[in-house]
């Protein structure tokens, strides 16, 4: 098995041992899209949702989720994140909200899972807050779009 595998020499699932890895600056960006109907888009544009600041609540949910990733994803390392950001952008012409997250730290393991968790939970929160207006919303395109640091260095997704 690979030195950095979640499978032990005897075939059991385990947490990867990163003790011998160097501490480096690492960051990851992820995105997700929430597609919705015209009524939900108009509600967001007006900013008068009866549940309050839906983008603000979704942002905070994403940030909190990133900080708890190791509680949600088995075998994920608990990390001391130095930055978590979540941005929600209404793309009305596409009938969607784009969510981008960024997670940073100086450590021995990457933060892709934290960035993906932040974007996913922000999308789920937005869905929850708007589902009374559009039960047919879709969450799509959740992926890592950029990674910096670590052994593999810089990577960006192609469109």
From TrEMBL:
<dbReference type="Pfam" id="PF01967">
    <property type="entry name" value="MoaC"/>
</dbReference>
<feature type="active site">
    <location>
        <position position="128"/>
    </location>
</feature>
<dbReference type="GO" id="GO:0006777">
    <property type="term" value="P:Mo-molybdopterin cofactor biosynthetic process"/>
</dbReference>
<protein>
    <recommendedName>
        <fullName>Cyclic pyranopterin monophosphate synthase</fullName>
        <ecNumber>4.6.1.17</ecNumber>
    </recommendedName>
</protein>
<comment type="similarity">
    <text>Belongs to the MoaC family.</text>
</comment>
<dbReference type="InterPro" id="IPR002820">
    <property type="entry name" value="Mopterin_CF_biosynth-C_dom"/>
</dbReference>
<feature type="binding site">
    <location>
        <begin position="113"/>
        <end position="114"/>
    </location>
    <ligand>
        <name>substrate</name>
    </ligand>
</feature>
<dbReference type="InterPro" id="IPR036522">
    <property type="entry name" value="MoaC_sf"/>
</dbReference>
<comment type="pathway">
    <text>Cofactor biosynthesis; molybdopterin biosynthesis.</text>
</comment>
<feature type="binding site">
    <location>
        <begin position="75"/>
        <end position="77"/>
    </location>
    <ligand>
        <name>substrate</name>
    </ligand>
</feature>
<dbReference type="GO" id="GO:0061799">
    <property type="term" value="F:cyclic pyranopterin monophosphate synthase activity"/>
</dbReference>
<comment type="subunit">
    <text>Homohexamer; trimer of dimers.</text>
</comment>
<comment type="function">
    <text>Catalyzes the conversion of (8S)-3',8-cyclo-7,8-dihydroguanosine 5'-triphosphate to cyclic pyranopterin monophosphate (cPMP).</text>
</comment>
<dbReference type="InterPro" id="IPR050105">
    <property type="entry name" value="MoCo_biosynth_MoaA/MoaC"/>
</dbReference>
<keyword id="KW-0456">Lyase</keyword>
<dbReference type="InterPro" id="IPR023045">
    <property type="entry name" value="MoaC"/>
</dbReference>
<dbReference type="InterPro" id="IPR047594">
    <property type="entry name" value="MoaC_bact/euk"/>
</dbReference>
<keyword id="KW-0501">Molybdenum cofactor biosynthesis</keyword>
<dbReference type="GO" id="GO:0061798">
    <property type="term" value="F:GTP 3',8'-cyclase activity"/>
</dbReference>
<feature type="domain" description="Molybdopterin cofactor biosynthesis C (MoaC)">
    <location>
        <begin position="15"/>
        <end position="150"/>
    </location>
</feature>
